[in-house]
Every structure is written in C-alpha cells, then in structure tokens.
Automatic annotation (TrEMBL):
The keyword Transmembrane helix applies. Signal peptide: none annotated. In the N-terminal section; belongs to the phytochrome family. It comes from Pseudanabaena frigida. Residues 571-598 form a coiled coil. PANTHER family: HYBRID SIGNAL TRANSDUCTION HISTIDINE KINASE J. Residues 527-580 form the PAC domain. InterPro entries: CheY-like_superfamily, HAMP_dom, HATPase_C_sf, HATPase_dom, His_kinase_dom, HisK_dim/P_dom, HisK_dim/P_sf, PAC. GO terms for cellular component: membrane. At low DSF concentrations, interacts with RpfF. This is Circadian input-output histidine kinase CikA.
Amino acid sequence: MSNSPKRSLLSNIPLRWVLVVPFVLQIVGAVGLVSYLSYRSGQTALENMAHQVSNQASSRVRDRLNISLQNQNQAILLSQRAIQKRTLNLKDFEQMQNHFWQQINLSLSLSSIYFANENGEMIGYGRVLSQEAIEQTKQLTGENLTLGESVLIETTSQDLAHRKYYLVDDQGKAKQLYGNLPIDNRTTIWYRAGKAAQQLTWSPIYVFKDAPTLGINIVAPIKDEAGNFQGVLSSSIRLTAIGTFLSQLNFSPSGQAFIIDRAGDLVATSTLETPYIQVKQGEPLRLSASQSKDIRTKLVADRLQQQYGNLNQIQTKIRLKIVTEGNTLFVEVAPYQDDFGLDWLLVTVIPDSDFITEIQTNAKWTILLCGLTLLAIIAIGVITARWITRPILKLNQVSEAIAKGDWQEPLPEDQTIAELKALSVSFNLMATQVHQSFDRVETELLENKHFLQQITDHSAQILYILDPNVWVNLYINRQSIDILGYTPEEFQQGGSQFLQSILHPDDIPLLLRNMDYWQTAKDDEVLTTEYRMRHKNGDWVWLRSREVVFARNEHHQASKILGTAQDISNRKQIEIALAEAKETAEAANKAKSEFLANMSHELRTPMNGVLGMVQILSTTKLTEQQQSFVKTIRDSGDALLTVINDILDFSKIESGMLEIEPSNFVLEDVIRSVCTLLHSQAIDKQIDLQYAISPVIPTTIFGDHTRLRQILLNIVGNAIKFTQYGQVSISVNSRLLSQPNQYELSFEIADTGIGITGDRIDKLFQPFTQADASISRKYGGTGLGLSISKSLVELMGGTIWVKSGNQIGGNPPSIWRLQLNNSSVSHGSTFYFTIGVSTSSVTEQPLGFLLEQMMIDNKMAEKFPLRILLVEDNKVNQMVANLMLEQLGYCADVANNGLEAVQAVQSQSYDLIMMDLQMPEMDGLTAARLIRSKLMSQARIIAMTADATPEDRQICLEAGMDDYISKPIDMQEIMQLVSTTK
C-alpha cells in the first residue's frame, strides 16, 4: 500500500537556489522597472517631439495659404472698389484690359484676374506660375510658354462660344493667338458661383476646363446701382501649387501633409497624388481621402470618419495616434478658415520610426547593463550560498544516520555561524528526545489498533478490504450481519463464488467493470457503485459502495481495496417514486405543449384572414381616420401574434426543448433590422433610436441570429414603450475569449425612460411578471419577454442584467459590479447582456435581414410571369391569398385539398405552388411528397401554414418543399416569394 503524499511542484529545492534566486529576482525586478520607466519616458518624449514638428508644419502651411490666397482676394477687392467708384467702366473692355494688366504686373504672385459678363464676354490676364502649367499648355496648344509669362484671356461678342488665349507684348496687347478652347464662360462653375453669391466668396473646387488640374476661384458678383447683375470678377489658383509646397516641407524624413475639405475630399497632398478621378463621360469626380491610393492618407481619413462621422464637428486642433502594423502614426488635424467661406482641414502625419532610433540605442545599453548586473549578483549569491549550506549538508548526513537507527553520532557543535551553532545544539537535544519518544509511540500504536477495531465493529456501514485480482474479502466488519445477514467468516470463506452468488444478475456487469477499473486506478480515485445483494432471508438489498486503492504490489498494481457499503434501499424506493412522478409530469408537459401548438394553429388561421384583409384594405383609398382604424387593427393583431409566440417559446423553455440554431450572419444587419422595425414606434414618441457597433467586432459571425433578433426586439421594444421622450441607444462591444475564434459580445441598451425602482428590479426576469401591476395596466404586455430573453441569453452562453439608478437586477459579472461605485446615477434603465459567438471558416453567404420594403406593384405579374397554384381548404384564407395575388396582377388556380393539388399538377405545369398543411382528404405534406416523387414536378413548393415552430419547418423541407412561411401571411412575403421564383 502506498500512502505517499502528493509531491509539491516546489519540493526538493536546494538551499543555494533559495538564497540566490530571490536576490536575482529583486535585482531583475528593480532594473526591469527602471528600464520600463525609461522606455515610457522615451515614448512620451517621442510623442511630444512629433506634436511639435506637426504644429510647426501646420503653421508653415497656414502661412503659405494666407499669403497665396490673400493676394488673389486683394486683387479682386481693388477691382471691385474701382467698379463701385465708377473709375472702371464695365462696358469699356479696353479700359478693363489695361486695369487688369497693371494689376497682374504689380503682383508677381497673382495667378490670374478677369471679368466675364452676362453676354458671355470675358477679358483678363493669366500668369504661368508652375512648370506643370507650362507642360499642360504645351500639350494642349503646342505653345512653349516661359515661367512667369503673362497671357491675355478673351472672349468676344463675335465668338461667345470660345475662349481665346494670346501671347502679349510689353504693353499687354495681343500679338499671337496660341489657344482657342470651346468654353462658354456663363456655364463655368466659378461664374455660376459668383452669380449666386452676394459678396466676395470662394467658388467650389473644380477641374479647370482649359487644363487637367484642380483649382479654385475667388469670385465677386458685380451689380449696377439698381441691383441688376452685370457679371463676375474672378481670380483662379491652381491647387497643385499647394501640393508642390506640401511636398517640399521636409518637416520629417517620412512625414506627410495633406489638405481636405469638410466633405472629406482631397484638396492637395504632399504625395502629389491627383486629387480627382477622370471618368469616361461627364465631369471629373473629386477624390475622397478615403479612396486615396496612399495608405497613410486612407488610414487617417477612415479614422476621422469613424471617430467623428461628420468632419464639421472638428472646430479646433485635434491630435490622433493611429497604430498600424509595425508602426505608429502621430496625426494632427487643424481647421483652416478665412473670411470668404474657405473651410479646410490641414492634416500632418508623422510615423514614430522617424524618432525611434535613439530610443532603441538606449534600450540596448539598458539590456547590456542589466545582464552584467545579473551576472555579478549570481556570482555573489553562489559564494554566499556555498558558505551557508556546507554546515547544513553535515546536518543532513547526521539526520540520515539517525533515520537508519544510528543514535550514537551527534552533530558537531563548533560552528562559525551563531545560528547554525544553536541549531546543532538543538538538533542533538531533539535526537535524544526522539529516541525516547519511539518507545512511547509503539505503545500508543497498539492502543490505536484496538481503538480502530472498536470503530469498525460498531460502524453503521459495512467496512471491508478486498483483493481486486481474485475478488475475495480479506476483511469485513460485523455490520455485514445487520445489513445482509451474513457473518464476516461466511464472506471470507466463501471467496469470489460467494460474492457472485448473492449479487443481483443484472449487476454482475458492474463487477466486471470494477475489476477492469482497478487495473489502472490512481491512489486518490474513489469508485462509487450502486448495486443489489440478496439478504440471507431472500430479500434484495440496495447498497452504495465507495472504494479506494489501499495497497499496491511490487508491480504497482492495486492489491488491496478499502471500501464501505451503505444500505440505500429506502432511498431507492423514493427515487423510483420520483421517477414515476417525473414521467407523469413530462406527459402532462407534453400534453400542454401539444395543446399550445394546436391553440396557436387555431388562432393563426382566423388571424390570417383578419390581418390579410387589413393589408388588402390598407392598399385601397381610405380617409385618414380609416387609415388609423386599419393601423389599429393590424397593430392589435401583431400584438396578439407576439403573445402567441411568447407563450410557445416559454413552453419550450419549460420543457427544455428550445434549441439554438447557429449560422453565419452580419451583426449590423440584425441590429439595423431591429431599429428599422421599431423606427415608427420611436418616431411616434419623438425618441431618438440609435446604435453603435465596435469596429473590432468581425463583420460576419457564427451564432443564432433569429434568437438574437428576438432578444433585441424584446429589450429595445420595452425601452421605447417605457420612454416618454429622449433617446434609446444600442451599443455592442466584444471580447476575445481564450478558445480560438471565440468571442463574447456585450450588448448595452440604454434609455431615458421611467426607470425601475425598489424591489421591482429583482422580479424583472421572472415569467408573467412586470415591475408591478400598475405598470402592466398602463403599458400592457404579458410579462414573458424578459423571461424568454433571459433563457435565450443563457442558451447562448451568456448572462443578462439591468441597472436603474443604483439598483441592479439579474446576474451581472463580478468585474462589472466593481464599476458600479464609480458610476453616476442617471435617469432611465440600462439593460446589459452577453452572448458567445464565433467566427466561422465556412465560406457561405451570410444571412441578410434588411429586405427593402417593396411597393405594391399590380404589374408584378408582367415582370415575373408565373403560373401559380393555391392549395387551401379554408375559404377565407383562399380569398385572402387570392386577393393578394390579384393585387400583384396574378390569377392563381385554387385547389381545396392535397388530392386536388396532385390532380392539378398532373394536368398542368406550375411555377409556384402555395401549399397549406392541414387539409381534409390529403394533407399538404403527403401532396408535396407525391408531387416530387411521383409527378417529378420541379415547381417551387412553399408551405403556407398556421403551424409556427422550427420543427414544422424541418418537416416541410423533408417532405420536398422549398421554403416555409407561417400564417398570417404578409404581402411583403408574397412579393418576395414571387420575385425570387424562377
């Protein structure tokens, strides 16, 4: 027998390691902490440096923009004032030409200035300010202009459809025509912007018609004294010049800068990327920063869109830190605005790799110093440990001698270390006392043996020692007489044959199982067995034994088993009675479920007629009051259906038959469908219904979307019901679990409603229970929704709870409870629940939920020509389905039962068969099987029944049907059905 205790993972550690390792750990911990703090300080310095560089770059860009744009503004303002003072005559184009020539010569940075009137005439000058303009002019006209050269731009009354470009002499007079472009000035973007403006303003950014480049105009509307519009003064600027300046900033080795407008479109970028998209036909399209080919530009634009949504929210300078693969980007976004409507965002992007070299060098030196310090400490520790452990090893040798019975060798007491000397003296004294104690122990051992014998003889249970190899009792106490009527001697003398003779025949396999079990059992494993043995008087006695390995042979096989046997006959009789009661209860529960299913069918059948007629009635011309009546009928019917579904679900939950049916789906589609369904209720109460989903959640997940949608409809619907005004919000976050591809989704539904007070919150998730009776009377409801939601959440591996004020109901996680003390009391209630989902590697199309609301089209039969057979025994339901189909332009054949349907398919080919299930003469399932197997028809068969359980749907599919819709049927379902039938 082996009774050795379980070895600890920290047992048998040498003393020298005990002395050395703590020193090493302390030094490593201290140095590591210093290294970490140094690293953090370096990171902070890096961020500060990046922000300083970004700020300087933004200031330089702002100064350049101010200079460039103000020159254009001042030139236009001067000309506008000259016109207002009548020193400049709009009808005297020669005077206008001379005036513009003087202005463009006075300001060398002025790119252009011109005037166009309502007749389409135009006069002005432009200047070549970039190599890009030279190349574009040469490509369009073949003329090779020089940098800084001025050109005359003119549209005359003789040719209003063309804009002409002239080389000029020193006086600004035309000397050579080099460009003639078909442009009507009155149709240009800048002219229309000026005409629509009331004062000096900037035009929208657009692609120049005379050159493939992006630009913007400062425009001023010109009116006479009567306020009549005369024309537009304008000056244009190429935005590529700003991009060139950005590319030459050199504020960081690999930093970038770009400018976007409030719509998120690129204005200019240091990467010199073309900020527009050329299309085959029509005007070029502005390039959104989110569509940029530059990865950093796209990353920053996407982050701004995610964080702010509308870029108009950015009114002050902001800073962002974006972590990408192997790099961190420091981003600064600064608004740029002027007095004339310009509203841009200046963005600078600096990667941390531009500054990280010095930090990495410091880290290497820190690691080297840590290593040297560690080696020094280990050396000191080893020397110290050896000095201390040498006397202790001697102590160990003497201890081993005493363990072997050699009591004559005392421990030397001449130790250098005072503590070890005192230990030697104490050890010698202890050895003497131990020797004396052995004699006392032997005496006490005999007394204890007698004591144990008394315990076994008077125990209420049978105690025995068994040889598992031959199944013979080596020992059994006297209790065997009281429980089984046999003496210990009868057990021991009878051997294994005796045990088998009194064991119940049905329990003999247990004997064989136990014999195999003890061949591999561990010392601490307990085997519990319940079996029957025949009493000496012939009665069967139920016993419950607990057995454990008591001893092992030299091959480490179990040689003795220690066990106890307890009489459990009375308990077994009670268990049998309980089992019978359980069967009775299950039968009653099954009968209840069948009753509820039948009631659901019987209620849905007339409801199909009611709601179907309401749908048809709603398509007719009704007064506003009549429309209100129709809506009330439909809402009441939908409410009744919800009650029916809740009762069916609750019945399944009680019977343990509700199962989860996971599949791939898009989480946002589920949440959006819930919001769409409840949108009208929220609008009626002027409630803002919104949702937010964490971007880290995978788009497609694997779970039960139907049950998740049911939970959200219950909770969000309640939130809207109990909220008079304000908002209801849905937030979703996720946490990656330890198992691969497993996530925990956390949902938070918050409202600004009436809240839950007192002890009502503790009853919230109980079935048929609401906050209290008064709430039920005021707001309605069965009290099943939250109870069903709680069961569904638990089936999906999650938990649900609610917080209202400082009150909590449900079962929140312990981590969440710790956050309660730090939260402020707010109005309304917040429901939380978690569920477990996964990401699936199965490449199947995720389920969609937002089917667009189709308009009823009486020409749908022309778009989707189908021959339809309606199989329905109920006359009202026949009329409802026929009327719905007629509204879509279809004329369906009608069969009153399955037999007529089979006969109809024999004589006619159909594209779509709408089949009821419960019908006289032949049901829908039998008819579907015959149509598929005997008639080999490929028509699409759709089950149309009042049975509403998933089991019914599976039965329909197994019978050969293609799909399943439950009554009451919906016009949208019918339209979806015919539009997807081929």
